[in-house]
Amino acid sequence: MTTANDQIERDPQIRFHTEGTLRAVTRWVSGHEQGLAEWLKNTRRAYQGDRANVAEEYRLALLLTKDAFLGEPARIGLLDVGGADLEDVEAWSEWQNPDASGRGSGVSEEVTQGNGGKAYMYAMFRGTARIYGIKNGRRNCKGFTGPEDSEERGHTGFMPTRLAAQDASAAKIERELERILEPYGVAPADLPPDLHDAIRRRGAFTLVEGIDPVLTTDGRISIEDLVFKVARHEQSFLPLQQLKLYAMHNGQYAPNGNPVRLEPIEPYPGLEDPLVVALPDPMQTADDAEISTTDNGRRAPGTLTLFTSSQNMKNAHKNLRPRWKVVYRASQHPVGAKHMEEFAQGVPGAEFIYAFVELPALDPTYVDHGRQRPKAGPLVEAVDNFVAAQIRLLARTISDLRQQVLDDGTLDQVHEENKYLDRLKNEFLPSAMSDQPGPWDGGDGGDGTPGRTRTTGQAAGEAVSVLLTFPEGGFRIGRGVSVRLGSLAGVRVVDGDEKTVKGVRYSWRASDEHVAQVQEGSDVLLARNKGATEVIVTAHVGRARIDSQPIPIEVWSVDHVLVTPRDVEVKVAKRQSLVAEVTNDEGQRAVDVLLDWRHDADDQLIVLVSHRGTVTANRPGLTTVTAGAGDPEVGGVWARIGARVKVIPNLDLHGDGQGAPRLLVTGRDVDPHTGEVRQGNVDAAVLWQEPSDYVHGIWWLNLQNPEAALMFSLHDDNPVVWRAFHAQALVDMLIQVWMQEQFTSLGADERPDLWGQHKLEMDDVEVTIGAEIWRKLTPFVLRGEEM
């Protein structure tokens, strides 16, 4: 309804600051690959049935480039067989025309904003930029000229004059070709035969070109780099699928005379077929509202297509990283793209995924200048949340496939070999090779945690007792929870002087297996049913058997779990205790019940959580930690609200010097931060340390690393190769220990140093310990013998 306050006497026309508007609609162009991708997109559109109607066999184009030479500036052009007529060049002349490509045909297959190609020609060339078309014996040519970024340059006009370029009579097609190709050092006969034939048969062509391109060095164009970038630009994907593109530079074919193609990405083994998922209609937005993905039935439904790569796309910087994206399309035309990291930061397996979203309802509301990214808004946000969830599901599948299945028997052998190597390394620690105690002076107490016993001195005598460390009254455990008693009870065997005895084998048994049962051959205890029992550990030393005192175990039937505090901030490599208050089915409450703990981050190494609720931070990020007992889908009970844990950077990462550094084996050894076996990481180094490992002097021989997995597979058939690899990992760890003492134990006197100095010091360390340690390692490597 119009009121008196709504009355207005309008200006004759809407007023814009012309130069400011020109800059606003062209500033998105920052590279020639973007502009050329726009030209290719326009060519593909011009070839469609409602426009030039070019037959499939004639859908060809040629990228022409020439370096500056003898005072002539460099130039870039794109030649196609469409043939721009007067209607085309007039539509091209108008900025911000949403009907520029459709010409009122009613075809919504691709709607443009009328800016892409012009923005490139306006912003990325110092000299003349023009569109030159021959069709039906008529010539039409319009373009730009004038100072960079000026209003004058953005004002289009016929070139060289209206008389000569507005639907003017054209020469024969071959003569017109000669005229436009001559500045590139190319003759019509030099053109690709199929392109030359298409132009002659159709009697038509279009050349879009710009003179004196910006961002070139001394007027030289790196054609290989340019073609590489153009082929990988998301705007080029569809054009390169639907037309054949050649390239010529300085009159010569490039690259190698072959058409420009986007090479296929080899899929991940076992996941060769793309995964096509229908986009739901409606979708939930972040604030739990509903939004239609079909514009309430007026547009076609959308799809998400997930593709896989056999190579890590994130790490393949040249070939695959540019394509590691989620690309958005509305029908057949691109809307933009987002990097995969926006959907799956730190998600293992996501490095092998790329995706396409086809959603007609994105157009025109979510289409931005340059089509680099879709505009933000509720529909895009809802779609992105759905896409991220689907990516995570597929990433988990890939992550599972990448994990090597390691033979348990071989793992046990490697574990025993590693125990020998770990003992041997004590002789070569910095403190062990000097008369002064150092930060690594200590030993493994045998309980899975760093000890404080000197690594040198007299060996232990005859074993006399098994020492355990556990709370008064033993352990309370939630029903359905499995725990490793070895790490919880701190078991070790000592002689009469309480010196730790090495080389001990342990066995565990529960008095009532109905209540709790020990997994055969391990220290893993499963709390099965409500009740009480005792667990005894037996130490096997030679032929002797020594029983420990009993460990009381009480299994609780959990009714409710409350985790506090609700919000926690912890620095990388630091620890924070969470409390789980448990109420059992009899109404009793306790905060010392051992539970399962988990968090919801895709990167499970952001934090490590023990059965007691101790959170160890590893990587910056945000996650929610919760606790419970049993499978929540089959009667288990978990806290309804978890603790939000924010891990923040730590600029003061220093080891605390507790005990000797240790080499542990993934897939076999228990992580003291969780009390569970540390699983390997395919994307981590052979010698692997997270920040929490670093500050506590732990290194992991990561058997999921591809190199380590290969060597592990040779353990039985070629043990010498495996042992050499294993020994080298130990030597590498020792070098790092020495380097850590040299460069991180200087306290306030430490000063930054050049890598060259570090390298010299590292080489010196290798020489210092190398000869003697390899002398002792040789019998082990060649024959598996211990010295």
**Computed structural class:** alpha+beta
Tell me the β content.
15-25%
Cα(first) to Cα(last) distance is 97 Å
Question: What average pLDDT do the residues reach?
Answer: 83
Instruction: Identify the quaternary structure here.
Output: single chain
Taken from the alpha-carbon principal axes, the silhouette is elongated
Written account of the structure:
The N and C termini lie far apart (97 Å). The chain folds into four domains: 18-253, Heat Shock Protein 90, CATH 3.30.565; 275-402, no CATH class; 407-441 and 660-787, no CATH class; 557-648, Immunoglobulins (Immunoglobulin-like, Sandwich), CATH 2.60.40.10. By secondary structure, it is an alpha+beta fold. The protein has 17 helices and 43 strands. A hairpin with a 7-residue loop joins strand 36 and strand 37 (637-638). Strands 1, 2, 3, 4, 5, 6, 7, 8 and 9 form a nine-stranded mixed beta sheet that branches. Strands 18, 21, 24, 25, 26 and 32 form a six-stranded mixed beta sheet that branches. The chain is 25% helix and 25% strand.
